[in-house]
Amino acid sequence: MQTLLKCLDPNDEQLRKNSTQLISIILSTMVKSFAMIAFHHETQRLAVGTPGGPIAIYDVRTSQKWKILEGHQRNVLCVEFDQKGNLLASYSAADLSLRLWKVGNTGFFQTIMGGTGRSMKEIKLDPIQAPQRAGALSGSRGRQRSNQLEPRKNGA
What we know:
Layout: H1 2-6, H2 13-33, E1 37-40, E2 45-49, E3 55-59, E4 64-70, E5 78-81, E6 87-92, E7 97-102, H3 108-113, E8 116-118, E9 121-124, H4 134-137, H5 139-147
Parallel strand pairs: 4-8
Antiparallel strand pairs: 1-2, 2-3, 3-4, 5-6, 6-7, 7-9
């Protein structure tokens, strides 16, 4: 991700000019294809969930990592910004939690310093139980019956 965003570095005007259209297509495709990547158009922020748990937020205008959100202990499967770009929701099936993060502009010093953020709300989830199949309820006899062939009828 950092390599793609480096092509949008405002300090290298020629690279940015030559790369903007292609990088936009690549990032758009990634956001549509992978639930662990979200983009908020108005704020130009890109959130990326990682296998290790932290979520990286990039400022696409500056092509820099803006903030790291720490809280999930394992694989973040899904991230999504709210409509205004002030909140980010994230989900990790591995640690069975849904978190809500405040990611709007948080003040001058925090914006220039970047740094890490903590979730403002965590919802712990119960594991999903697999439904039992009807055959599993009838025991081994039910399975034996379903595997037996029906006798042929005359003329069949």
